[in-house]
Amino acid sequence: MNTLSKWLLGVLALSLAAMAQAERLKDIATIQGVRTNQLIGYGLVVGLNGTGDQTTQTPFTVQTFNNMLAQFGIKVPAGGNVQLKNVAAVSIHADLPAFAKPGQTIDITVSSIGNSKSLRGGSLLMAPLKGIDGNVYAIAQGNLVVGGFDAEGGDGSKITVNVPSAGRIPGGATVERTVPSGFDQGNTLTLNLNRPDFTTAKHIVDQINDLLGPGVAQAIDGGSVRVSAPLDTSQRVDYLSVLENIEVKPGQAVAKVIINSRTGTIVIGQNVRVQPAAVTHGSLTVTITEDPIVSQPNALSGGQTAVVPRSRVDATQETKPMFKFGPGTTLDEIVRAVNQVGAAPSDLMAILEALKQAGALQADLIVI
């Protein structure tokens, strides 16, 4: 390989590294007003194989069932003891995407709210889905897909896999109403950062103004950027198509050390630094073993065989070396030093907490 080829490969590697650090604007920010909306509903699942609600404990299931029959002109006798082993009352929820139009379908999740053991094999009857404003935005109906199941033996033994009391219906709801958005209103749009950061906001403003001209983008604060936008809707779509593909280098996050005390997981951020400090770590291991001895008497001595207890106590002190952190120690040096002493996750938690208390850990220590 000649010198020119090596130089070209080096330039390509540097370019790829620079591109890897940059992210598309659509991945780090969202457009204000363009959002999903939560929907919720209530309904009945029928066709269950005897795993429905126990009506004596869930009277609302019977009430809902009677109301449904009344709409078809069927009246249940008052005081009738209705047993609905194949019916379950359920809650329904879904996310209505932005720009969803009437006639389009969305996925829904169905969950039992009574004491139904399983919704497997059931069908959801037509049920309205409402938004927070009380309006109906979709109508749900369809056959459930349940990933869990349970089986029970005659002796009371039972096995359950996953959660059989909840399921999904892909495309199970039809959109009936459009949610208005502010996408086509005004001559500006606001970009909200997924992770507010002043440096990232400045980089977004610089990138947009370099591409489209000065003054097009202005930072409102560390989490929002306002950009000028055309009034025509079709032009606005083309305009945002260009904006969302602009590559921006996000600002580095605040130095953090995350400790999960339940699982022992420890995550150390990139910008964590340690001021000069010396750390030593070791543990004392005490081992106690029982090694009984059998005492056998001599022949014709008239004695009896006896077991004599004997204990052994050993104490081992690990001799781990002391290591020292210099000023501005990086993440790689921290990991290397900790690995040298063979610290377990629980030991590393103690070391990091001690460094924080000593004022040597320049990072936010977060325990979850």
From TrEMBL:
It holds the Pfam family FlgI. It is found in: Bacterial flagellum basal body. The keyword Acetylation does not apply. GO terms for molecular function: structural molecule activity. It comes from the Bacteria. Keywords: Bacterial flagellum, Cell projection, Cilium, Flagellum, Signal. Assembles around the rod to form the L-ring and probably protects the motor/basal body from shearing forces during rotation. NCBIfam families: PRK05303.1. This is Flagellar P-ring protein. It comes from Pseudomonas marincola. The lineage of its organism: Bacteria, Pseudomonadati, Pseudomonadota, Gammaproteobacteria, Pseudomonadales.
